[in-house]
Amino acid sequence: MELKQEIKVAVDAIVFGYSNNKLNVLLIKQKYGTFKNQWALVGGFVKDKEALIDAVNRELLEETGIKVNYLEQLYTFGDNINRDPRFHVISVAYFALVNSTKLILKADSDAEDAKWFPINQIPDLAFDHKEILAIALKRLQSKLTYQPVGFDLLPKTFLFSDLENLYCTILETEIDRRNFRKKILSFGIVEETDQFGNNLKGRPAKLFRFNKQKYNKLSKDGIFFEINFA
Amino acid sequence: MELKQEIKVAVDAIVFGYSNNKLNVLLIKQKYGTFKNQWALVGGFVKDKEALIDAVNRELLEETGIKVNYLEQLYTFGDNINRDPRFHVISVAYFALVNSTKLILKADSDAEDAKWFPINQIPDLAFDHKEILAIALKRLQSKLTYQPVGFDLLPKTFLFSDLENLYCTILETEIDRRNFRKKILSFGIVEETDQFGNNLKGRPAKLFRFNKQKYNKLSKDGIFFEINFA
DNA sequence: ACAAAAGTGTTAATCTTACACCCATGT
DNA sequence: ACATGGGTGTAAGATTAACACTTTTGT
Prior knowledge:
Two copies of one chain form a homodimer. Chain A is of the alpha+beta class. Chain A has two domains: about 5-145, Nucleoside Triphosphate Pyrophosphohydrolase (Alpha-Beta Complex); about 150-220, Winged helix-like DNA-binding domain superfamily/Winged helix DNA-binding domain (Arc Repressor Mutant, subunit A, Orthogonal Bundle), CATH 1.10.10.10. Helices cover about 25% and strands about 30% of the residues of chain A. Chain A has helices spanning about 50-65, 130-145, 160-170, 175-185, 210-220, and strands at about 10-20, 20-30, 40, 40-45, 70-75, 90-100, 110-120, 155-160, 190-195, 205-210. In chain A, strands 1, 2, 3, 4, 5, 6 and 7 form a seven-stranded mixed sheet that branches. The first copy, chain A, has a three-stranded antiparallel sheet with strand order 8-10-9. Chain A starts with 7 loop residues before the first strand and ends in a 10-residue tail after the last helix. The interface of A and B includes residues 52 and 81 of A. The structure holds a DNA duplex (27 and 27 nucleotides).
């Protein structure tokens, strides 16, 4: 069979991080091309004989040096033929979460600069990356309510108030502290440590830890994580 | 910028239909190539300057002549480099639902034959299509519980027992008829018509209709469709 | 002593589950 | 009259939602 096809395949990663009670997105400044000096998602072309997932991991490593905590395919953007002015490019977008303690970046080959931007201070983005980001944010918001992905944005041990804040911030909602704590603890996947956090004000607070093994076990048995608020 | 990339882009569609209280999948027999005479999902290569969604619709039309009721992107398969023995091909898979009254097929150019197969009698499939199908089935099952997609598998008007059966069959579960009916009716998106179905035995049953407009309105206001069983 | 955030229980309301009999038709 | 599937209600249990005061620390 003969086949001439001029479509290019790229991957992009929407990398979310959380620090200072803010949701952040990792962007890199374009070095070349039409969008030179504009900010864009982490990403690039897939190599021949390269698995998509390997391509994403490679780009993450090359452009940011970051180690992500959670990575899943989000959506493939290929309906807007002119999303890239150079060629017909489809992009397989991935959704990544980074532990807030690992926000150290290395700017490298493809990027003049890599920087975290708070979700409500996103500059103009190259290509259709603004759209992609919007969809990723929705996915994060909905995922928070039915999978314990929030923990992938927090350090290994965290205060209950951190978790609470994370939910409030990302879902842009208020929550009842007592009911929230009861609900989370009822799943049995968050454990108290015997450490205390270094909160400067108020009563010292215990640190908690997410028990992933336990969650995996429970979720195999069909026990669901689910959080809804009034 | 220069770019040589040998990756090909295909689309595949997993088309589900429902009739005789069975869930069916639409397959086509391959005409050419390594997998000649094997069954495969509807699909093919994307054309240059063709949107992904247009490619799926074109393939559906060319290979089956079918009009689908629901279509959404499922997942992009591109981690197994050798999923196609000819080239490095990534496939953007789509998930389609067909109204059971429209199961008429036309076998055409790319397909020697197109046929519906009950989900539990799927033959060997070409490429990695068995895996793709498995993932699509999971998506259908989970989607049934949080979006009213079941109606896209039924004719415009249907008996309550049809809907009930559809849920039992696809989710492989038993349900309480009374609670199910109460739940569905409580959403206010299913209306009684003044028609009766032509059930041969037992008491005549009313036909019902799904009110999509109403669902759309309610779902904008954040009213959720959700079905869980004991 | 006061400011700041952590920690904790109870009650009413709502939703979910379990469960069984009568109804309308065809044969 | 009987077989078949359609149609319906209620009560107990579980879950959720609303709500405010005490505790521990630093200053």
